[in-house]
From TrEMBL:
GO terms for cellular component: microtubule. CDD domains: WD40 (cd00200). It comes from the Eukaryota. This is Uncharacterized protein. Residues 1-31, 329-350 are annotated as: Disordered. The keyword Iron-sulfur does not apply. WD repeats lie at residues 36-77, 78-110, 121-162, 163-204, 245-272, 273-314.
Amino acid sequence: MLKDELASIGTSTTATKKGQEEDWIPGRGGGARHTLTGHRSPITALAFHPTFSSLASASEDCTIKVWDYETGEFEVTLKGHTKVVCDVDYDSKGSFLVSCSSDLTIKLWDCMNNYRCIKTLYDHDHSVSSSRFLPGDTHIVSASRDQTIKIWEVSTSFCVKTLRGHTEWVRGVWPWMHGRLLVSASNDQTARIWDLTTGETKIELRGHEHVVEIAVFSPTISNSAIREMAGIPAPTIQDSKNREPDPLFVATGSRDKSIKIWDCNSGQNLKTLIGHDNWIRALVFHPNGRHLLSSSDDKTIRVWELRTGRCIKVVDGHEHFITSMAWGRASAGGGQPTTNPDTDPASSGNGTVIPANCRPVNVVATGSVDQSVKIWAP
């Protein structure tokens, strides 16, 4: 009897601990674990390495810095861009880092060779505001102030496709995990979902009253919570079997201080989340599928309960505007998938997809105009 009771207590404790880990959010239990300083101008973007405890930060000081987020130690500074570095992203294996800049270039850095710059891509006519690896890592997608989105072949450095449709600066572009779709955000107050097969706009999301800064696809794990929030019936088993593995929902953040949740197929605005007092700069879906995190120029991080659309926590993040935010990712042991192959992996923040052989870890990084990066962890 005593043995059974002890076993029961042990199981209960393990389940409780697992639940606490799954529900962890920044600011719970205290402030940031580390504050990383060294940049001489505002932080513009952040990216977690998929296998090492490394974090890359981009800055208006024309450099990229790599840090060990577990220890808070600085590792290396990457120099090569001659103007503001606007974005950074690691490929799914962590072999390469891509960056883009207001100097009109995109650069590829070899992470396995002391972050040596091995390629510089030219074709945009204005500042390159966003650059990301497409799933499969053979291509890169970029967005620019020249109003275009470009697809690049990594092996040849050639631009193989240019997508046109936005009428003003394209602030950013983010891929869907299966690689066929993209979502972009623009100064023209819209977000667009693109079909890469045709290069055409699949749907335009119109409803914000100011620049759209960020747009991210929701991971499949968030679908049930968003359906409940929007009053959409759950799909039947047959519907689920017949459905293409396409995203159902998109979240956008704008300078109009609002976050909107959209139906990808109809373009309908399902919910508008109000609470921030300034521009929305970054959105991250929580790996548990139940929450959405946002950061803003009001210097806070907000945690939203997707099921209700209610803000459940406000974290005072930085002393100045919070420009960027990312959720950590780490490689699973043995390279075996840790997610159900019938669903998609989570998003690590700002649209970066966590590969199937990786698992999200409880660490969040935020970057600010105060020139610092903060690491939030249990």
